[in-house]
Write a structure and sequence with these properties.
This protein is an all-alpha fold. The chain has a single domain (29-39, 46-193), classed as Lysozyme (Orthogonal Bundle). It has nine helices and no strands. The protein has helices spanning 2-12, 29-40, 52-66, 73-89, 94-105, 126-131, 141-158, 163-171, 178-190. The protein is globular, with a radius of gyration of 17 Å. It starts with a helix and ends in a 26-residue tail after the last helix. The relative contact order is 0.15. Residues 1-17, 199-208 and 211-216 have low confidence and may be disordered.
Length: 216
């Protein structure tokens, strides 16, 4: 019976097991102020697309790929517009954010990890105390995306643009390659968008991070 239960959980929640937990690290006053300002900016969302043609092309393509996970078309477009806006606002590739969401929560809005990380981007609640407002709800679409994107941007800045280390920090698995590789694979294989990243190609296998050697 126990084995059957574990099997059912694995089928129902295939990606949540990869959800980690950002670890608390003291922030300088300047970093806390900057992150708090970024979180609190409630300017009405405008279009994050360069023009209407780009919006139509991107939304159509991403909606097609996301259809099985979010069957309702209006919900898909609302979700995708929010991802594109918050990712672009934070200086992130929206397709990278889609890959991260796939690995962290499998697009489950109310996912909760064993460590208590919440929502689509599996944000740890301590961030609300550090940089947000006590009324912030990490299960709300835009709130979760804003926190997740700003936190990933923060880790990228700390790591001077090193995506693998930034992803390791995001997942609480810094130094281990499994999670960064999984996100990179989802990004490149499931969400890569040639029209958005003209001239780019998926990273070749040899550039994947490898597990640290245990030999002397």
């Amino acid at each position: 019976m126990r084995r059957l239960t574990l099997l059912l959980l694995a089928v129902l929640f295939p990606a949540v097991s990869w959800a980690g937990a950002q670890k608390y690290e003291p922030l300088s006053d300047s970093a806390r102020a900057a992150l708090s300002k970024a979180i609190a900016d409630q300017a009405p969302p405008g279009s994050s697309f360069r023009d209407s043609m780009e919006a139509v092309d991107w939304l159509s393509e991403m909606s097609r790929r996301l259809k099985k996970r979010i069957p309702n078309r209006d919900n898909r477009h609302q979700f995708l517009r929010a991802v594109h806006y918050e990712a672009t606002r934070a200086g992130l590739d929206p397709q990278l954010v889609l890959g991260l969401i796939q690995v962290e929560s499998s697009f489950k809005k109310y996912a909760v990890s064993s460590a208590g990380a919440r929502g689509l981007m599996q944000v740890m609640p301590f961030w609300i105390r550090l940089i947000g407002s006590k009324d912030d709800n990490l299960f709300l679409l835009r709130t979760n995306l804003r926190y997740g994107c700003i936190i990933l941007r923060h880790y990228l800045d700390i790591e001077q643009g090193n995506l693998f280390r930034a992803l390791g920090r995001y997942n609480g698995s810094l130094g281990r390659p499994e999670y960064p590789n999984r996100v990179r694979d989802a990004w490149q294989k499931q969400w890569f968008y040639a029209a958005k990243a003209e001239g780019q190609k998926p990273l070749p296998p040899r550039e994947r991070e490898k597990a640290p050697s245990t030999s002397p």
